[in-house]
Design brief:
This protein is mainly beta. The chain has helices at residues 2-18, 259-262, and strands at 33-36, 52-55, 61-67, 72-77, 82-86, 94-97, 114-119, 125-129, 134-138, 144-148, 150-151, 154-155, 162-164, 170-174, 194-198, 204-208, 214-219, 225-232, 235-242, 253-257, 272-274, 280-284, 287-291, 297-302, 307-313, 318-323, 326-331. The strands form 7 sheets. It has a 5-stranded antiparallel β-sheet with strand order 1-24-23-22-21, with no helix packed on it. A 4-stranded antiparallel β-sheet has the order 2-27-26-25, with no helix packed on it. The longest helix has 17 residues, at 2-18.
Amino acid sequence: MPHLSRLLAACWAVALLVTPAGAQESASRTLGTIERNDPRLDKLIPPGAKVERLAEGFDWSEGPVWDRKGRFLLFSDVPMNTVYRWKEGMPKPEVFLKPSGYTGSTPRGGEPGSNGLILDPQGRLVLCQHGDRRVARLEADGSFKTLVDNYQGKKLNSPNDGVYHSDGSLFFTDPPYGLLGKNDDPKKELPFNGVYRLSPRGELTLLTKEMTYPNGIGLSPDEKTLYVANSDPERAVWMAYPLKEDGTIGTGRVFFDATRGVKTLKGLPDGLKVDRDGNLFATGPGGVLIFAPDGTHLGTLNTGEATANVGWGDDGSTLYITADMYLGRLKTSTMGRGF
């Protein structure tokens, strides 16, 4: 069909144009401001620090993860079904993987690409794939190996984000954002949006189905607490669950409630990361909210944009930020969990 060929060619052209938009001229520009609510923030973010804008022009940037061996950053553009690669000294990010989350032959809209990106204990790239509704690993030959795509025979909704435990198990969230009709999509097979644990042997356990829109997920440094963001404007909270020795969770508590902030600020609770001392760097209303382990809101990286996720990189002290069309970074005085 000639008209389809022209359409696909046009889409590829747009994708190529989006990648470098403003990247070269933005290297010295900043992204938003830093709000300091508590003196403890100064120990994490030096006074005078600024968020550097590295690149821009993406549709919806997500899931930054640092590859230590290659010393580069990977991140998703979910609507564009693409993973980009950025490395210090590159004039612009380059396409690393396309398609990244939807490998079907029928073109579709919405958010089909990969969302959260994680490196497994062996350093292999694991992707939460919206369109293919699975968690998959990128193999050396460029193919995808499905790690999990169903719960009790019913297809997952659209895996969103994940975090590895030191025992090799993967905790991940499964909201409906990759489905064109979200919760009302006729192809949605599960009547809930779950949080799961995938064991090293491939056994899937549903941890909770009580969260309306589970999204970002992280572990405390001692791996005794599982944090999960709920991206629901009616209940914009971060939950903290005690993690049991068998990998299941106990009764959760509200770690922080940002529902009031949703009314005046851009963004919802989304991706999050934890530093080596247990402080949370959690994207939400306003940008990146920084919490002490006791739940005190220490401050916010006010990006001015709906901010999707963060990831530790370089030697572990650099925080990379995906905020709508932007990629940014902040040099901190702390270190990410796992570094």
